[in-house]
Write a structure and sequence with these properties.
Helix content is 23%, strand content 27%. The protein has 228 residues and is of the alpha/beta class. The chain has one domain: Spore Coat Polysaccharide Biosynthesis Protein SpsA, Chain A (Alpha-Beta Complex), CATH 3.90.550.10. The chain is globular, with a radius of gyration of 17 Å. The two termini are 15 Å apart. The N terminus is likely disordered.
Amino acid sequence: MPARTEGIDLIAMILAAGRGERLRPLTDEIPKALVEINGESLLERHLASMSEAGVSTVVINLGWLGEQIVERVGSGSRFGLQVIYSPEYDDVLDTGGGIHRALPLLGKDPFWVVNADTYTDFRLQELKLKDDLLGHLILVPTPDHRDVGDFDLVNGLVGNNGDRPMTYSGIALYRPELFAAQEAGRFSLVPLMRDAADAERLSGSIFEGLWEDVGTEERLAKLNVTRT
């Protein structure tokens, strides 16, 4: 394992509660986060990368077959991490609700959030948000399998206008304040991102390295052939 970055103390959350409907029947037996690319699960790849980047604590939300994640990852000590679990199980709260529920575990400072079903070599880093910003999205060029992207990016600010050539990578840095007006329960993160973008309170940057959304059997099969 490459040397751990010194002097950085980051907290991150991995969203791992999803059912993985598009990857069935594989995900009938294992959680989506434990799907493997060339013998390594998506979740364990993220944990190793986070440890190398200097992350100290990782919160993982649990849903479908979440007990398998606990059994596989445990305390996180073999990655040099403290792993804390936020169980949802039969009451999966979607992206926004899952983060909201985990806020007491994430602290008062900005924290990284990573979707478990991404395959990437993006490395988390210390990133200072301007005081008026609620978050920072990592965007990627819209992949061929999508007809339209999610956002545009103008002068470093994420927007909902134009031809929206960029796609949200599933990686972002958020302030807890983004969720301040929300009540506990199931809700999507997307409306919060769109509202923050409209208010010019969401920055972004473009990542053009290795990134894939492992969302279908076809893309999973391709990655298992082409990636090492």
